[in-house]
Write a structure and sequence with these properties.
Elements lengths: L1 E10 L2 E13 L3 E5 L4 H4 L1 H11 L7 E8 L11 H11 L11 E3 L2 E2 L5 E2 L4 H10 L4 E4 L14 E4 L3 H8 L31 H13 L3 E4 L6 H7 L9 H14 L11 E2 L7 H5 E2 L4 E2 L1 H4 L4 E5 L6 H5 L2 H6 L1 E5 L4 E5 L3 E6 L18 H8 L4 H5 L3 E4 L5 H5 L6 H19 L10 H6 L5 H14 L3 H17 L7 H11 L9 H5 L4
Parallel strand pairs: 3-4, 5-8, 8-9, 10-17, 10-18, 11-14, 14-17
Antiparallel strand pairs: 1-2, 2-4, 6-7, 12-13, 15-16
Helix pairs in contact: 2-3, 4-8, 6-16, 6-19, 19-20
């Protein structure tokens, strides 16, 4: 007798329906699993056999054939233990329950028939919701948040016996979940009101947060680049419930700990990190730093110290918002919609254009240092800032805005963009067609952008970024139309600072 049991497979963060087909035939005692199982799936036959034996179900003189369909997808992880055990019992007529194709089962088996939680359950749950399944049987995991979805009934079970009881119509005692308190956003350790000076940089950071624009900072050591970047998450709106679960799923797949806060993630990898750790991959592909920064911030301090190959790998996720990792047996994709903040010194010694220190670098050294950051990567930054040291005594007495006040403006600005585009997407990510459809410029403004592009040798991408920035600036000021002032401010933000290599000959011409 052949039976089918539904389960969930994972291809990266994307889940798909797996049909566990089980057939029991007379023959030598054996369990054969086909359908591209990996080592952890192949070991399931031993766990299933031991669990069924402990439940007094004999597999003597039975050859069990288990097919995991679709057969062309590589299966991994012990999520299929529970559906395999149910399929074996049904195919041997040991139990008589009716299964619906809309009922899915996930969970690993212990040798006594218990069901244990495993890594990757949260993305499997979200996949079950997207696939339109009606009921999901799974083990209870206190690390997961309290989950309630319209249209998906989650049944927590602790053993195969519990599953059989519930399928037979008996009621199970509910698991007592720990008390869920109101989620509190954990503030950044650096508050905007504690940062002295840098008024223009703070304005640029607010624009970057409001429109999800990538930002690049250049300046001498100790001028405040890292401090501004670390304060940036404190002005970002808290994650929605859907975004929080998505971020938690990525961290669970990476097995680097649980994240339950609504604070957007902030990742700050060291410049010695490998390309695989930044982008993701490995023999068994896992999310990298760009995916762990999803819905948050990826800060690359001393960005010029990262290898050129690693930085060029960022091109695809910056444009598409996802990372695709191809291997011989499968291809997986992970989301990677993050705000990139890069920071570097203007030269190897760090004091180019400084009024207090003398730069000891030659033109050749500065050119080589600047060329570590390729033109295509520079072109993908929306905002370019050149920072200078501030006069602490003069700036100390000035009134400074706190992060909460700025965050309220950022949240309101993003909501205006969501209402305009009909979905949760900001000006920095919306397609050019949709942007121009909702942003009408006058003929004089088009001519202004063209003239500025010719004067400053701006690429087509840079011109589009000017339009995106101008739209965000107008949204912050609650303006439906873009004014000339918005365009001028956008041009000033997009224009590269004093680190531009073309200006080095003027400032360093006498130094050989």
């Amino acid at each position: 007798m052949s039976v089918n049991v539904t389960s969930i497979g994972l291809r990266g963060l994307e889940g798909y329906r797996v049909r566990v087909e089980v057939q029991a035939v007379d023959g030598i005692d054996a369990i054969v699993i086909v359908g591209l199982p990996d080592a952890s799936v192949k070991e399931s036959k031993e766990r299933v056999a031991a669990a069924l034996h402990s439940m007094n179900h004999s597999l003597t003189d039975q050859k069990i054939i288990i097919n995991l369909s679709p057969a062309e997808q590589k299966k991994n992880g012990p999520l299929f233990d529970l559906p395999m055990a149910l399929g074996v019992l049904l195919s041997m007529n040991e139990i008589h329950v009716k299964l619906s194709e809309d009922f899915a089962f996930i969970g690993a088996l212990s040798l006594d028939g218990g069901i244990q939680p495993v890594e990757g359950m949260l993305p499997a749950i979200l996949a079950a919701k997207r696939l339109g399944l009606k009921r999901l049987y799974m083990p209870f995991d206190e690390k997961l948040p309290q989950l309630e979805f319209n249209g998906l009934d989650i049944v927590y079970v602790s053993s195969v016996h519990d599953v059989i009881q519930h399928l037979s119509g008996q009621t199970l005692l509910p698991f007592i979940a720990p008390s869920i308190q109101e989620e509190v956003v954990v503030e950044s350790t650096v508050e905007f009101s504690k940062i002295v000076g840098h008024t223009y940089a703070k304005r640029a950071l607010e624009i970057a947060a409001a429109g999800e624009h990538h930002l690049f900072m250049s300046g001498p050591p100790g001028c405040g680049k890292s401090m501004l970047a670390e304060a940036f998450p404190s002005i970002l709106p808290p994650l929605t419930e859907e975004a929080r679960l998505e971020v938690m799923s990525l961290y669970q797949l990476n097995t680097c700990g649980q994240v339950s806060s609504r604070q957007p993630p902030f990742r700050n990898p060291h410049h010695s990190a490998s390309g695989v750790s930044i982008i993701g991959g490995g023999q068994n592909p896992k999310p990298g730093e760009v995916s762990l920064a999803h819905r948050g911030v990826l800060f690359l301090d001393e960005i010029a110290e990262f290898t050129k190959k690693t930085l060029d790998m960022l091109r695809q996720p910056l444009e598409s918002g996802k990372v695709t990792i191809s291997r011989a047996h499968s291809t997986v994709s992970y989301p990677a919609q993050f705000i990139l903040i890069g920071a570097m010194n203007p030269c190897p010694c760090g004091f180019l254009h400084s009024r207090t220190h003398y730069c000891t670098c030659t033109t050749k050294q500065i050119t080589a240092y600047q060329n570590r950051l390729s033109g295509p990567i520079r072109d993908r930054f929306d905002i370019h800032l050149s920072l200078k040291p501030v006069d602490l005594q003069a700036e100390q007495e000035k009134e400074k805005e706190n992060s909460e006040l700025i965050r309220k403006r950022v949240t309101a600005t993003r909501q205006r963009q969501y209402n305009r585009y009909g979905e949760q997407i900001c000006n920095g990510r919306v397609s050019y067609d949709r942007l121009t459809k909702h942003t009408l410029l006058s003929n004089s403004q088009h001519q202004m952008i063209r003239q500025l592009s010719l004067k400053h040798h701006l690429s087509n991408r840079a011109q589009i970024k000017i339009l995106r920035l101008a739209r965000t600036i107008a949204d912050i000021q609650q303006s439906e139309t873009i004014s000339d002032g918005h365009i001028w401010e956008a041009v000033k933000l997009q224009k590269r600072g004093e680190e531009n290599v073309h200006r080095l000959k003027m400032t360093k011409g006498l130094k050989k």
